[in-house]
Amino acid sequence: MASKLPILSLSCVFPNPDDPGLGLFVKSRLGYLSKIASIKVIAPLALVDFSSAGKARFGRRGVPFQRREDELEILHPAWIYPPGGFAVNPVLLFARLLPFVKRVRKNFDFQVIDAHFAFPDGIAAALLSHATGVPFTVTLRGSEVLHAEYARRRKFMGWALKRAARVIAVSERLRNFAVSLGVDKARTAVISNGVDSSRFSPQDRDACRLKHGIPPGAKVILSAGTLIELKGHHRVAKALAGLRRRGFNAELLIAGRSGAFETEIKKQIAGLGFTDSVRILGEVPPAELAELMSASDVLCLASSREGWPNVVHEAMACGTPVVATDVGAVRDMIPSLQHGVVVPAGDESALEDALLQALQRQWDRQKISAWAQSRTWERVAEEVLAEFHAVLNTAAKRNAAA
Questions:
Q1: How far apart are CA 349 and CA 239, in angstroms?
Q2: Phi/psi at 153 (5° precision)
Q3: If DSSP states are collapsed to H, E and C, what string results for 307-335?
Q4: What element of type H or E holds 78?
Q5: Residue 398 to residue 197: CA distance in whole angstroms
Q6: CB–CB of 259/226 below 8 Å?
Q7: How far is 102 from 96, CA to CA, in rounded Å?
């Protein structure tokens, strides 16, 4: 039996004991990939975390340097970056990781460096690749478009991505974004995320409603995601206000980890005057999120920017129809009006009309679930591993011809 391909994966958003809800899609891909490849994860931990809502947090916060999750070995080297120093952060990350990665390689002869997100991970991976001679890949997941609005970050991302052996995008739009930065399309691939059907599948709707205090006959909209502006929870609340003015009563559940826009969301909801119809649930574990999806009439994603929005995929796997803005891979995820409704991003009237339509019609929830569950994490892992092998085969041929 052939040995498993050794891969060093780099992700600044891999979940940890202090923040278990961070980057679950990265954890899922690597977890399934570890069944068919040998994976060591480097998940840098910011010793001074400026990303938390409200104030900076200091220290390791109980996160061990080394730990295991099933087949994955996860290493959490600490690094420090200055607030507002975005353009230099990838260089600071590289400087911290280089001696650490060289030590790791003495006992783990990784053949590919696998970076998640282009900034800062992908840029640091490009520098590590140059220093070690190991090819690297970068997966684009959506935040890169935001970073590209800043000239220096865009320049650095373009520099790194053009040197990547493979750029994997979770949507065709993100592949086109990579090409716009100068990446050869022949070195790109589109591999969307998968779904864990053992967790996200249709459940007894009445039982889920009873558990979560939802009246049997209530019309319920679920909005899920970190409480930041681009996720658009406030837009869903505004659409709900419009429905109420039109005489249609519904409730809104907002589930997501705390973020910088949480206070503003609460202010807007209070200003709309129907706090009794909105519940902000905070971060909920995946099993509970699946129950809320099964209990809801519709999931609404009103984001202004996305890659492959996992909540859309997960809600549909639970059989729940989706109303979503036309961002990222949403049109690929919602292939017809039998699965949900796609509206232009920023069109408040269209969002309100689509929610009214979705709440009033009968949906074939089994059909919706079957479509979403056809895209598994096992399949994603196989496609990613095939790209890694293609990278190494190309490198071998190039070396043989030299």
A1: 8
A2: -65, -40
A3: CCCHHHHHHHHCCCCEEEECCCCHHHHCC
A4: strand 78-79
A5: 41
A6: yes
A7: 11
Say which residue the tokens 């796997």 belong to: 317
**For residues 174 and 24, what is the distance between their CA atoms, to the nearest angstrom?**
20
**Quick one: 276 exposed, middle or buried, by C-beta within 10 A (0-12, 13-18, 19+)?**
exposed
Pick from 96, 124, 128: nearest CA to 110 = 128
Q: Which residues of the chain have pLDDT under 50?
A: 1, 53
Helix 286-295 vs helix 310-317: crossing angle, to nearest 10? 60
How far apart are alpha carbons 80 and 95 in whole angstroms? Answer: 11
The pLDDT, as a whole number, for residue 272 is 87
* Cα 260 to Cα 26, 50, 140, 279, 362, distances in angstroms: 22, 11, 23, 18, 37
- Helix H or strand E encompassing 381: helix 377-401
Nearest alpha carbon to residue 43 among 97, 89, 103: 97
Burial 314-342 (b: 16+ CB within 10 A, else e): bbbbbbbbbbbbebbbbeebbeeeebbbb
Query: Which domains does the chain carry?
Result: 6-194+377-401 (3.40.50.2000), 205-373 (3.40.50.2000)
pLDDT of residue 50: 62
CA neighbours closer than 13 Å in the CB half-sphere of residue 204: 4
Q: Is 20 helix (H, G, I), strand (E, B) or coil?
A: coil
Model's pTM, two decimal places? 0.90
- Residue whose entry in the numeric block shows the structure tokens 């889920």: 208
- For tokens 């807007």, what's the residue? 268
Q: Determine the pLDDT at residue 55.
A: 58
Please count the residues of the chain: 402
pLDDT of the residue at 275: 81
CB neighbours of 321 closer than 8 A, spacing ≥ 6? 297, 298, 299, 339, 340, 341, 358, 363, 365, 368
